[in-house]
Amino acid sequence: MNREIKPQTNGDFKVASPIERALAVAATDITATLTERGSRYGKFISHASASQALKKMIRAHMGGDKWDRLADDQREALDMIAHKIGRIVNGDPNYADSWVDIAGYAKLVADRLEGIER
User: What is the pTM for the complete model shown?
Assistant: First the structure.
């Protein structure tokens, strides 16, 4: 049996379950991922502000009727492109993956319009 024994605050001992161990590892992994992403893309709150401003501008410029007439993939691609632009302007503008992702979202829609669904 592979269980860790941890003392509790009252001096008793508790056996850590596999779920408790998995949650502790996940929390550590999430923190590491957030730290790495923050160094690449900047603070999330600033990125969110930039992305949301771009998305609001796109919707306002198009108007509700035109936006609503877009296909789901077109709306999603525009949202994701705005998201990626938000990362570029808020973080590292020299990170090639962000630029490649923008091209990829545009290509998915263009391909679908030409009869190629991915």
Answer: 0.76
